[in-house]
Every structure is written in structure tokens, then in C-alpha cells.
Amino acid sequence: MEAALLELIGDRDLSQISVSDVTGRADVHRSTFYEHYTDVHDLAASACTEMFDQLLSATSALSVTGDSSEKDVSPSLTAVFAHVAEHRALYEALLGADGSARVINHLLQRMTESIRPRLSARLTDPDGGTEDSAAAFVSGALLGTIADWLHRGCPGTPERFATAIWPQLVAASLARPA
After folding, report:
1. Which parts of the sequence belong to the HTH tetR-type domain (predicted)?
2. Which of 22, 48, 74, 146 has its Cα between 20 and 30 A from that of 66?
């Protein structure tokens, strides 16, 4: 069913794909679909797990430390945008205006969990929560930047775009709570 959904996304927007469309393309009964998924959005998150895992591998390798320079762009950030460019059509379908808020939220939560360990070593708060908020902030900024880059047609190369946003990512990651 995952392959059927990915084929259908190639033909039309995710918001226009129904369970009937998926089951018809996959040649399975609706009851089989509902044994595994709650709806098309659930299937979309599952179908993109491998692709999201690749993105998360690149984001978890992002390393911003106190000695990070605005000029020393992380190769991992370039890898993030290269991955998105490679899977552009699918990311546009999922993150675009006709995408799925649930899939976006799923990806945002996974990105936050991926980035959190990098920030938690620097941000310790006896009351808890600082590293959670900082990871959510950086993840949201990165995912929002990815969505904007896609929306604008991925101008420039992944390297050039990573270089352009690296200073903002460094600043956001190194900011200390008041």
C-alpha cells in the first residue's frame, strides 16, 4: 500500500488521495487498509519513514558548538538540503500547501528528538524543559526553512542555501536562555 500511495502522490496532491484510491491501486480490500493504517495521512507517514530516516540522520549529525564559525558551514546541513532536493517532488507533496499537517507534525517531532541530544549537553536546566524548547525551536526553524525553500522552487544549490542559513542556525543553536 505504501508503494501505491507513493505512485499516487506522483499523480496528484496528497489531499486529493482517498483510501479507495490507495486500495484500488494496491489491489487490496479496504478492511486490509484499516488493519494497518487509520487513514491516508497515517499511511503517508509510514510510507516516508525511510526517507525521513535519511533526513533525520543528516539533522542528527548537525553539530553547532561554541567554537562554530558562521563561515564553517556544516557538511551535514548541506546534506540535509541535498537530500531534500533529491526527493523534492515527494517533500513538496508532503510539506506543501496541499500536504498533510499530521505528516508535518510527525516529521517535526522526529526532528526535535533527533536534534535534542546535540543541545541537551549544553543546555541543562534544573527545572527541565530548556533543551526540549531549544530543540523544538531549531527543528521548527529548519523544517520551516526546508518548506520555504521547496515553495520557492529550491533556488540555488544545496551548498549555497546551506551557506546562507548556517549563520542563523548557529545563532539559534547557541542562544542561551535568559
Report:
1. 1-55
2. 146
